[in-house]
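Reading a protein record of the kind used here takes only a little practice. An example makes this concrete, so a full record is given next.
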Amino acid sequence: MLYRHHLASALDARRADFVRFERDWQAEARCYVEHLRALGSRSHEDVRRAALAIMKSPGALPSAELDERKAVAVPFENIWRSHEEARSWAIEVLQNRVTCAADGSQILPGRDISLPVAAVQAVVFENPHTRAGSYRKEAHFEVVAPEELLEGEGGQARAEAAVNFRRFQLETELLGEFLKKHAGWRARGERVPVAFLDGTLLISYARPRTNIQDKYVSAIIDLVKLSRATEVPLIGYIDRSYARDIVNMLETIASNRCRAALNDAQLLHHSFDGAPPALHGWGDRTIFCYALREGLGAEFMDEEGEPLVGFIYLQTTGDAAPARLDVPSWIYEAGLLDEVMDVVRAECVVGNGYPYAVETADAAAVITAADRWEFLRAVQEFAKKQDFAFHISRKAMSKSRRR
C-alpha cells in the first residue's frame, strides 16, 4: 500500500528541484511562444520554404489557412449560456448525420497458462442520429491460435505484438466497411458522414522497420486512401497527445535556438507571461497543418509527393490540454474541414468532452480482468473436451480469487 505521509515528505524534500525545473522550463518555452505568434505575420509558402530549406522532415507545414486566419489559432465563434444551449447546437449538427467509431481490446497470452492462446475483440458503433433513435453496435471476437502466436522469433514479446496488431487490423477493417458503405453520400443528398479511429493515423518508425511495423503502416495507409477514394471523412482522435510536430517545426525555423522539453499540446494550452494560451476557449482549434514528421515512410505521401495526412489541435474541454485530430489531407483540400470539425465538437458536447461515438465503442469493447478469467475457464473446458493439455498456474488462480 502507499503511505501518504511518506509520499508527502518525499515530495517536500524535492520541492527545490520542482521549483527550479518550472522556472527553467518557462524561460525556455518563451522562445517557442514568440515564434508561434510570429507565424501569423508570415505566409504558409514562406514558412514552407524556410523549414524545408533546413530539414526534409521539419515535423509540420502550415496550410493556406495560415494566410486566411493570420494566426495559428482559429477561435470558435459560438458562445453558449448553458449546457442546454450547447446540446441543442450539437443535436442540430448531428441530426440525420451518421457517425461511426471502432475500438478494440485484447486478451494477451500469459506465462500463467500452459498453452499459448489469446483473443481480440473489436466493436463498431454506428449512429445515424435519427429521431427514431436507432443505432448499430456490433462486436467481433476472434481467438488467436498458438501457431499465430509462435510464428517467427521473439517469444512473448512477438506473441503480444501479433495480438495487438490483429486487434488494430480488426478495427481498421470495421471502419473500412463503414467507409465503403457510405460512399456516394453526396449523390444521395445525405449529410457528411464521419468515422473515428481511437488513435493516430500517423505511424512513424525508425528504419529498418520490422515486418509487424510494415503491417501497421500498410493497414493505416489503406484506410486513409479508402477514406479519400470514398470521400467519407476519417478522423484519428488522440485525447492526450505528446506529439511534437509543431514544436519541431518551430525549432527548425528558429535554427534550433529553441530547446525545451515541450510538446505541442503544452505549447498551445499553456499561459506564458500572463498572456492567454493560443487555444483558450472551448472549441478553438489550430489551423490545418500537413504532417511531415521524421520516421514517416514514403507511403504517407501522395502521388504528387505531398503529405496524405495532416492534423489539428482542438480544445474539447474548458481546462484540459487540447485533443489532437489526425485528418486526411483530402478533407481540408475538399473544403469539408469546418463541417467535420463541427461534427467533432458536437460529438464532444454529447460525450462531455470526449466524442460520444468513440466513448461508446470503447465502453463496449473493453475486456476486464474478470472477462479474461472467464475466457481462460472456457479454454480450459474446451481443452478438456478435445483431450489436450491446458492448465492455469496455481499462483494465477490464487490471485484471481483474491483480487
Q: What stands out?
A: Residues 155-181 form the longest helix (27 residues). Residues 394-403 have pLDDT under 50 and may be disordered.
